[in-house]
Amino acid sequence: MPAPARSRLIPTLPIFHGWIVVGAAFAVMFAGFGVGYSFGAFFTALEREFAARRGDLSIVFAISGSLYFGLGLASGAAADRWGPRRVAFLGMAIMTAGLALASRADALWQIYLAAGLGVGIGVGFSYVPSVGAVQPWFVRRRAFATGIAIAGIGAGTLVIPPVAAWLVGAIGWRDSYLVLAAGTLLVGGTGALLLDSRPQRRGLAPDGLPAASPGIGPRAMSGLDFRAAARSRPFRLMAIATFLTSFGIFVPFVHLAPAAIDLGASERAAASLLGLIGAGSILGRFVIGSAADRLGRRRVLIAVVAGQAALLVFWMAAGQLWMLAVFAVAFGLSYGGYVALVPTLCADFFGARAIGAIMGAVFSGVAVGCLLGPPLAGFAFDRLGSYTWPIGACALLSALAVVASIRLPDPEGWRADG
Fold it and tell me: Which domain of life, per UniProt (predicted)?
């Protein structure tokens, strides 16, 4: 019997290569979401520059944020076919170009196109491929590894919005966009080039075990195709829950800083609240991801969604800056845990065969919540002079998401025909 050919295998490194992929995904999301969520740091400067209302400016983030997830199905399917490296790098290049063009804008509609479409397409073509690339490398520590990768979102949100706010004050919003463009290409582009979703090319199975190791579930390296997954009950329930929570997730990213300014905070102090969301989300991805691997991912998901609903009610009652700071950290913890758990549960239920397309489809409903939530909250404020009603509506939708999450079956006992 001839010896197995190894010419197609890529040499392995002393460290399990799955962690290299985790670091690469971290870098892509650090750059993409960090820059995307820094829009609040530009809010007041653009409001003055273009004499715009809050509802009008909120459309910029609504466009970009809806594309983060609205393009998930297309980018995930493209990554399944052509690999995450090419798709994610294309996203980082488009985002870089959009930021550079935004620096030259002379009218608000140009900001819509450059910062809205450019940043949105860039993140939309990099997020799902990056997270999807991590899933085939892990089974036992999948939630923890995914949490570390997605912690790039929290780290970017912690670092980049305060830096952007400082830049806007020091060199103006136009040159600040150019600095962010350069950083996106350097950090995000480099991370994209290191993505890899095929451990078998290195002679490995998930968790660093040799290929074809015993104990690796049948769906870990293969799994359901997209059509079979999309017809299933877990897919529908996760899509519904993710859609409902999206309103409560994205309204704070746009309106928490303006709400703080209304309470008397400085622009820099208000922008720092976004950094606190990022700090909380980093903790959430590590702590909640690790806890989910031990306590059960479905059970922890329910707790996280319930926590988000309760925190939005707390925001409604917050009348002082310190209360908004407490909300920002706790909200980040909940939000960080949620976005780490959903991709993990997708892989638990459906395997890695079509993980990009499945994740993209589950997250596609988020596009609607992001497209509608921040502008509707902004227009409600313009009309009512208060955020109470829009925040209350977001809390109610999150409560409904708890119901959908409770109805999810246990991934360990679920079968596609059961």
Answer: Bacteria
